[in-house]
Hints:
21-stranded antiparallel sheet; two-stranded antiparallel sheet; 23 strands; globular
Amino acid sequence: MTTAPPTGSRPGRSARRLTLWAAAAALLCPLAAAGCGGGAAGTASPSATTIPTHTATPASIAAGAETRLLAQQGLAIGLASNVVQSQVIVLLDALLDSTSCKALAAGTGSSKLLQKSTTGSVATAEVDLYYDGSCAQPYIEAAATLTTASATGTISISESATYLGPAGATLGVLALSESVVFAEASGGTSSDTVDGTGTFTPQDGAPPVSLGLECEIPAGSSTPPPFVCSGAVAQPFPALGLSLATVAPLTISLTPISGGGDDDDSVVFSGTQSTSESGATGALSITTPTPTTFVIAGSGTPMPSNTTSGHAALFALFSPTPTGWTVTDATDGTAFTLNLVSTTQLTGTVTSAAGATLARLSLDASGSGTIGYTGGGSAPVTNWTLGG
């Protein structure tokens, strides 16, 4: 059961949905696994540790790179969705000024505005999100700065979000920076546009993961028609001596759930034209030649394009079943698949076209857990980002 914001402070379904999606997509940075951090987001070099000597054969390195690339993209979808949802909540809490504990409008969980101050067009706010419905089990501790430019219909948002696991351990910090332009206020476009970049730095010392997202969301209806977002992710994999990066478009569709509340929508998404590259450790990054486009910068080698398809039962921070998605190598049919088993567990695999298992994943509600590779070895997965 959800708790509505105070009477008179909540916009109607049409205005709210457009506003939330504009803010969401900007903050999403996936439909996504890491954050958004102002302008270009470069792939950070690994910390000052010795990179292992690589004795694997070129063929095994190539197979390992393909498996990790598919897992990287698949996990990024989970992070993107997470960032979209959490940033919508942070934005709403900051705007509504209510410091009471609020159950989330869709799905489970809760949130609370801890403090807010405003000077002119700049507001700072601290908002916590929780796994449970009574603000007792912290999940995200967000410190955000919102700057409004009324003349251009723009809200610029920068944020540092600390993520905590279900047992309370710190997972890492997501640094976000995004811009939202509302069509009605700007007067120059029929779409709400969003763009952002950022970095997630895992607490366990794994190399930072860089991301980006841009969307143009048609304005003027309570439920937008299908629209396209472009997500980007880049990170080093010291164990392979490689960096992997992808820019992937996704077409997103929302469908109001019959008999549900104003905020109850199911989600379907798909994409077919990803651009992926591999390069030396630390050689690749995500750059933004224009505010709404991303490219892979650095010296890289093209990798096969991947296709994506998926769904969520509810557009919510914690979606119920059935929720899951698949990313498939369009060349050889190798596929990453992840499915929600329960509110506390997700399981996934990477399989060849012939059905051989290449990797297995087990994750908790925060998108954290372990990936084990059939060829040997395992790596942590932290807040929807792949380590090692």
